[in-house]
């Protein structure tokens, strides 16, 4: 990746097939670590690539090329929030010298299911790109984005976007570790500061349901939201889980039947449906969805390992279940201090 004559970043392929994205230019200072990181990336050894690139950044922490390539590796392992934090930092310092960052950010938002933000950044790239390297990809991304009316159009300034990313990453951290009290505290702040960011409300309802003592309130709030936004996917997943755990199979089946026919294009939403089926005990349906997921995109999600291994266990694949669980424990310390879900239910 290097700056082209238009001030963009070139030699990065379509981010929807991000495996081909490599930065061939080796800048001075930290070049050995950077080169090793690129070589590991080419071999799809993303954890090793990340270690080398972090060493390169320790030499030159403000190097925009190092930051951009590192963000691409974070995208590969499913750490989309961290990737966007790095890219936003590059934009805040270098502005339109690195216009391709707009497209990379749009692509990460699309993977996160934040369609409004993905649309905004893809459009910004097309406005600023002047037929840049990702012009066609950005147009294709906009065509793919089935943008709903769930959220009002909002022009976040970059400082607000950066703050929102920090909140998202913090909430994600606690939710994935099932640290409900900590998650609720963060989500309450998010809702107050960013009332139009609907995902925070869904995650808040989810966390309050599991905190204990507030299940009815969580259900009522989610149903109210769904009445106002009939196509809200996260409302379907939440209510399917809520009513199953309450023992109301009839209502749960209503939402489950709706989810059966939904196949999102974004990895985060795909994972959400797979985890939902696993949580409510529909292991065969969950297994079908987990098989569709790209593991390289979801290594940053403890829930991927927690619930995929659970599906394998209950479907008679015990050896595979323990192998995947142990892999997850190596990736995430929170899992290493827990028992597998199937052991907890005994």
UniProtKB/TrEMBL annotation:
<keyword id="KW-0802">TPR repeat</keyword>
<protein>
    <submittedName>
        <fullName>TPR domain protein</fullName>
    </submittedName>
</protein>
<feature type="repeat" description="TPR">
    <location>
        <begin position="30"/>
        <end position="63"/>
    </location>
</feature>
<dbReference type="InterPro" id="IPR019734">
    <property type="entry name" value="TPR_rpt"/>
</dbReference>
<dbReference type="InterPro" id="IPR011990">
    <property type="entry name" value="TPR-like_helical_dom_sf"/>
</dbReference>
């Amino acid at each position: 990746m290097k700056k082209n004559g238009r001030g963009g970043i070139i030699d990065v392929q379509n981010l929807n097939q991000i495996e081909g994205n490599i930065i061939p230019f080796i800048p001075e200072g930290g070049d050995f670590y950077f080169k090793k990181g690129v070589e590991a990336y080419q071999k799809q050894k993303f954890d090793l690539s990340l270690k080398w690139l972090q060493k390169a950044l320790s030499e030159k922490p403000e190097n925009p090329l190092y930051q951009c390539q590192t963000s691409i590796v974070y995208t590969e392992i499913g750490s989309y929030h961290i990737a966007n934090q790095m890219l936003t930092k590059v934009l805040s310092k270098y502005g339109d010298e690195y216009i391709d960052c707009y497209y990379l950010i749009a692509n990460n938002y699309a993977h996160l299911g934040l369609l409004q933000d993905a649309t905004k950044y893809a459009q910004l790239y097309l406005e600023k790109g002047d037929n840049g390297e990702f012009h066609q990809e950005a147009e294709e991304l906009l065509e793919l984005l089935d943008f709903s009316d769930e959220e009002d159009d909002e022009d976040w300034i970059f400082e607000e976007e950066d703050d929102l990313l920090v909140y998202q990453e913090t909430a994600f951290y606690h939710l994935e570790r099932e640290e409900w009290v900590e998650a609720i505290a963060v989500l309450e702040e998010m809702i107050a500061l960013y009332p139009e960011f609907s995902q925070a409300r869904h995650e808040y309802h989810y966390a309050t349901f599991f905190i204990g003592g507030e299940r009815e309130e969580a259900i009522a709030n989610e149903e109210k939201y769904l009445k106002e936004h009939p196509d809200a996917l996260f409302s379907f997943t939440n209510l399917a889980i809520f009513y199953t755990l309450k023992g109301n199979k009839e209502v749960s089946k209503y939402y489950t039947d709706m989810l059966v026919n939904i196949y999102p294009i974004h990895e985060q939403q795909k994972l959400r449906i797979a985890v939902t089926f696993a949580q409510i005990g529909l292991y065969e349906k969950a297994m079908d969805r987990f098989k569709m997921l790209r593991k390289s995109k979801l290594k940053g999600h403890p829930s991927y390992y927690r619930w995929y291994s659970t599906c394998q266990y209950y479907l008679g694949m015990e050896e595979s279940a323990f192998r995947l669980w142990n892999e997850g424990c190596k990736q995430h310390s929170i899992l290493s201090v827990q028992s597998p879900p199937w052991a907890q239910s005994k």
